């Protein structure tokens, strides 16, 4: 950790790697003035389904201008994606140890509607904070923060679902834990935080801390 502040993108049910940063740094800056990037964790997450990795994506309204700020990205409800996500999560985790314990707290994210992706992700993040019993300091960028700014440890391009996009993150190495379909496909690392809380429950925070303690 070079700095006391980490710079992250917004994220939809963010991956475990992302939450390791949230508990490690005294202050987190969420970039909201970047030009929105598709096919990233900003609007998608990966869960562990019966056939392996199952991506869940939040559709967004197509912008008339290609360069739209993340803070201005709107969610599209042209399809009933919330129902599909809900069914996918149920099928993936209904047999997990802590599904029944947490699922009621998450239901509103698949029944209520939010206009903006950033707002939606922020509300999800607050709910996960409550489940993990953490209270990180979160702030939002007041302007676009240039890459290479020495004041921050920048993970905007290091936490990404596409391997070809990844920059090396020397501060994250996944550790194995029991997963619902692990006997069938083996351990799949760095899935959505949903995978961790449904499988480990109250031990989720200890798992995140154990990864950081190895640094």
Q: Which strand order spans the largest sheet, edge to edge or round the barrel? A: 5-2-1-6
Quickly give the structural class: alpha/beta
Please write the string of helix (H) and strand (E) elements.
EHEEEHHHEEHHH
Major sheet summary line: 4 strands, parallel
Q: Count all strands and give the number.
A: 6
How many separate domains make up the residues? 1
Radius of gyration: 17 Å
Number of helices: 7
Helix content: 25-40%
Short description:
It comes from Labilibaculum euxinus. By secondary structure, this protein is of the alpha/beta class.
Secondary structure elements and pairings:
Elements: E1 5-8, H1 16-24, E2 27-30, E3 44-49, E4 52-57, H2 81-93, H3 99-106, H4 117-132, E5 137-140, E6 153-154, H5 182-185, H6 193-200, H7 204-213
Helix pairs in contact: 1-7
What does this structure look like?
This is WbqC family protein. With about 220 residues, this protein is an alpha/beta fold. It has one domain. It contains 7 helices and 6 strands; from the N terminus they run βαβββαααββααα. It has a 4-stranded parallel beta sheet with strand order 5-2-1-6, covered by helices on one side. The chain has a two-stranded antiparallel sheet with strand order 3-4. The longest helix is centred in the middle third of the chain and has 16 residues.
Could you list some keywords that capture this structure?
215 residues, alpha/beta, four-stranded parallel beta sheet, two-stranded antiparallel ribbon, WbqC, WbqC family protein
